[in-house]
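DM from R.C. (forwarded with permission)

"hey, sorry to bug you on a friday — could you get me a structure for this? deadline for the figure draft is monday and I only need the backbone to look sensible"
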Amino acid sequence: MENLDSPTTMPASTPPPYWNNVLKYGLYGGVALIVFSLLTYVMDMNMTSIIAGLLVLVVTVSVAVGTGVIAIQNQRSLDGGYMAFGRAFVIAALAIAIGVFLFNVWNYILVTVIDPDYMNRVKEQFVEQWGESMPEERMNEVLKNFDNAGSLGTAAKNLVTGVLFNGLIGGLIAAAIGKKNPPMNL
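My reply, with the result:
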């Protein structure tokens, strides 16, 4: 009879679980995005300018892909040095999704609890920046979106689209970078 205290080994064909890495690196990615958000908030950056939009895009994509690649590389070392694209994609997408989830929770807390007037300031910046160049109907639509920014429904919609977009696109890019197939024996 086998001793219950004896260590058991997994069969060689079963890769080790990845949840610890996914959670760890998802947390790191979320913290990096929150720190970036805090910096833009403290610096009172005009978030409606083209430069700010490009900066946000570059930083978010970089953090998302970086989070995925690092999670893949760490897990790949535990998996024996090799990882198929599919497994790499799942690990990256989940880590990125956790980071984006944390970031969206932070943003919701920022605009509803910490600084409820923040979206009004961004709205004013938007009108100053784009008011003259936008048709009135379109401007009214955009301003209505600013008014809804603090609602739970908008936060949920942003969460789902952020997780899907960043998780899927970032996960695909990270998996392409981080996968490593075993050498083929001929």
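R.C.: lifesaver. The two ends are 43 Å apart (CA to CA).
me: no worries. Helices lie at 19-42, 50-78, 85-114, 118-130, 136-147, 152-178.
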